Amino acid sequence: MMVLLDLALAAWLLALALHVVMERNERSAIIAFLALGLLLGLVWVRLAAPDVALTEIAIGGGGTGILLLRAEAALRGRGKHEEGATRGGKLAVAAGCAVISAGLGFAVLALASPAPTLAPAASDAIAATGLGNPVTAVLLAYRALDTLLEKVVVLLALVGIWSLAPDGIWGGAPEVAPAAVPGPLAWLARILPPFGVVIGVYMFWVGADAPGGTFQAGTVLAAMWLLVIMAGLLPPPDAASPALRLVLVGGPALFLAIAFLGFIVADGFLAYPEGFAKPLIVAIEAALTLSVAAALAMLVAGPARKAPAR
Amino acid sequence: MNGLVDIATMVLVSMGAVLFLAGALGLLRFPDTLSRLHAVSKADNLGLGLIVMGLLPQAESVSGGLKLICVWLLAQISAATASQLLARKIHRDEGRS
Amino acid sequence: MPEFLAAAALVILAVTAVALFRVLRSRVAAERMMAVQLLGTGGAGALLLLGAASGSPATIDVALLLALFAAFACVAFVLDPAEPAGEDSPEEQP
Q1: Least CA distance to A184: which residue of chain B?
Q2: Which of its termini does chain C have fewer beta carbons within 10 Å around, N or C?
Q3: What's the burial of A113, exposed, middle or buried (CB within 10 Å: 0-12/13-18/19+)?
Q4: C20 Cβ partners below 8 Å, 6+ apart?
């Protein structure tokens, strides 16, 4: 039965991916892509990777879809550049994609069986971190440096987007709410955030011992904040606002501070003192969750469109 | 006792699956957009409700059961909002053309 | 019991897949927007059944997030540039 289910899911995923590529109307293609993100979440569950499933649904189904729709709405009507890729250009792109797909397929099929793995070593040492979720242990203890750099990359992306604002309104607020907010959406923006905030905090808290964690929790909180400002219930913050910048920098800054503290109280950079690993990791995760939420929401909101309030 | 609970689960889940089927049939067969919207949002949400009711006796903990109910509530909220917004959009599109 | 629940999940997934392609290939723009809602309910139903079938509690969390983001995706409606900005249907204003 499960084999049948997996085959059906794989066929469905391929068909939907093909539909996204073939669809000529951009808006429809983006909506199909949103659906693809949600479906991929289901596939990750079948692959026994609930952590990835949660991220895929939050980013693929929520964040990216809305980001693309906003980009499409902003570009529409601005004299669409019919750059019209030539036949040869399209063929070259198709060939390039085919080569990459074939290479990836070959690499997966050629993997040694059983695949080389560090999983036993990782689970043996997990007791030292006090965590129950091996994914969180990898992200915040074994490979904490990668996680730290990832969060800095998100901030750099935000700086990149912010610098698209014209000089005159630098530091101002983005424009997110439409001129007229439909009644049902305003209702949703009042009803959904209480659920969303509880689910976000739950995702963060459960992340130590079960699937979940900072990124999933941060995305949920970002989505709820975006919903509220898109329905016009709260104004979007000024990019120059000290509170916003403090929240954005707070997570990575705390992470760095604790990393340097490792030189004094533990074995070195990014090492946690014995017995204090779990509380320190939870503190870092809490600050990172807020930073990720603010950064993702501001990424989707885009560059400033109004002069800052002084 | 356990057998009785399992039978209840099976009956409720089967009814839920049938409702999903009915919703898809309505989507394929109904003549205009508003009736299709009606078929999908009503039947699918009732189907999800029946599945949640069927799975509640199988829940391992109280919090697990609460989460099941939450999933259904969120689907309700989502369907209510999306249907209203869609219907407004269809109404407007028809008014303009 | 797990076999039965997995079979029910398969039925719901198959039905949702057929409905999804019907909606995505529709000529009416508004109908294509139904895709996310459809996958929200169908996917959540299938996930809950799969979670109960395999006895992994984390699957319920995935279903919870799926339902939450299907609701959040409603904001896509206000991002529609075809929507006339600034004016509302006259009969809705008292």
Answers
A1: B81
A2: C
A3: exposed
A4: A16, A35, C35, C38, C39, C42
Q: What is the mean predicted confidence (pLDDT) over A270-298?
A: 89
**Extents of the domains making up chain C:** 2-74
Percentage of chain B lying above the pLDDT 90 cut: 41
Residues of chain C found within 8 Å of residue A180, distances taken between Cβ atoms: 85-88
Taking all residues of chain C, what is their mean pLDDT, rounded to a whole number?
Answer: 81
Tell me the nearest-neighbour CA distance from B94 into chain A, angstroms.
18
- Put simply, whether C49 touches A (Cβ < 8 Å) is no
Partner B contacted by A195 (CB < 8 A): yes
User: Do A284 and A140 contact (CB within 8 A), yes or no?
Assistant: yes
| Chain C neighbors (3+ CB pairs < 8 Å) | A, B
Residue with the larger pLDDT of the pair A162 and A128: A162
Domain ranges in chain B are 2-96
Q: Hey, is the C-beta of C45 within 8 angstroms of any chain B C-beta?
A: yes
Question: A184, A169, A242: which is closest to C77 by C-alpha?
Answer: A184
Model ipTM value = 0.87
Q: Which of residues 76-95 of B touch C (CB under 8 A)?
A: 77-79, 81-82, 85-86, 88-93, 95
Provide the pLDDT confidence category of residue C94 given band limits of 50, 70 and 90: very low
* Chain A partners within 8 Å of C20 (Cβ): 16, 35
What pLDDT band is residue A181 in, cutting at 50, 70 and 90?
Answer: confident
Instruction: Give residues with Cβ within 8 angstroms of A105, minimum separation 6.
Output: none
